[in-house]
What we know:
It is a single chain. The protein has 3 domains: 3-269, no CATH class; 277-388, no CATH class; 396-454, Arc Repressor Mutant, subunit A (Orthogonal Bundle), CATH 1.10.10.410. By secondary structure, it is α+β, with helices and mostly antiparallel strands. Helix content is 41%, strand content 18%. Strand 11, helix 3 (200-219) and strand 12 form a beta-alpha-beta unit. The strands form 3 sheets. It has a 9-stranded mixed beta sheet. Strands 4-3-14 form a 3-stranded antiparallel beta sheet, with no helix packed on it.
Amino acid sequence: xxxxxxxxxxxxxxxxxxxxxxxxxxxxxxxxxxxxxxxxxxxxxxxxxxxxxxxxxxxxxxxxxxxxxxxxxxxxxxxxxxxxxxxxxxxxxxxxxxxxxxxxxxxxxxxxxxxxxxxxxxxxxxxxxxxxxxxxxxxxxxxxxxxxxxxxxxxxxxxxxxxxxxxxxxxxxxxxxxxxxxxxxxxxxxxxxxxxxxxxxxxxxxxxxxxxxxxxxxxxxxxxxxxxxxxxxxxxxxxxxxxxxxxxxxxxxxxxxxxxxxxxxxxxxxxxxxxxxxxxxxxxxxxxxxxxxxxxxxxxxxxxxxxxxxxxxxxxxxxxxxxxxxxxxxxxxxxxxxxxxxxxxxxxxxxxxxxxxxxxxxxxxxxxxxxxxxxxxxxxxxxxxxxxxxxxxxxxxxxxxxxxxxxxxxxxxxxxxxxxxxxxxxxxxxxxxxxxxxxxxxxxxxxxxxxxxxxxxxxxx
Length: 461
């Protein structure tokens, strides 16, 4: 059964002032309805200021990162989108005609990019409205219905959120900063829009529920009608809101109080020259430039700061060794400590020193990971940390003595290994690691144990 899924994603832009007034956008600690003025509160006679230039530039940069074509040298109208809802004091929301069209991300076409203003916050349970958020600049990204499953939709949203975070132009720290509406239709039924989705996980669950609901109706011979539904996060279901509006129902008109925007080519090229490399393009470049696996590159570009750190280190150390450590050991340590790459305090030079110690055999990879854990906590020199932990190269005579002792005191494991139980070799290796206080290389221990046992040199028998 053919399925079509598209998104309208709204993200708050990281500006200090609202879209059409000078009220601050940081309303997190403000008491309700105090971060407002006559303009963003929609009071009669209040005239909007010209559009926030910082917000316009941010939306252009995001559109360029999505491969869109910017609408240049033509009027971009700020329109009034009329609908009746308590969070809209003026009875309309200002939204621009498209500032960009025709992009693509992960095989999903981007139809349009718009600038909007955020409405207030309405609590239907209490009936209270807080207009502190009203007027905060938004970028709206509209896709074509190119996704064919909830899993594809989830994958696209993850890619889009990564692009938005890379841009540095959005406000992920604000409550409810990202909101998505999704359109879902199944062959044989009408298109249904689901609103009030505030997370990638929520979008995935809402789409899965809605697909099951629509399929069940069609299987019963019922009609899936065109409507707007709300996603209830607490119950993981969708509920009817209203009959789905057509575009003409919004009665779009150009706002007579705001001159049209004109974006010239020079402005676009200035922004293009200074913008960051989009993560999906950076991932492709890392594969080509450093010869690393696509799956490894995907992990590295998961955070902009992580990719920056990788490239700073890969300039001085084998890129493949660096990539392997980033994908496994560094990512594991950061996840365990609940840190993002932007929060690490060690320098690229310290990580270079650690990787050279591993490459030159001063410490084993396992010891290097212990050093890395300490380096993330407190950025001392890697050699100083290794000395403090008692790590470093073990003398050959000491290692062989530990192997002989492990064999002598674990004869049952020796007999098991000689009888064909290969896992006994790892038990013996663990005993050697204990005797050497973790200073030996497990790979070398295994080779020496195997040679000692299979060569018949077993003084303990």
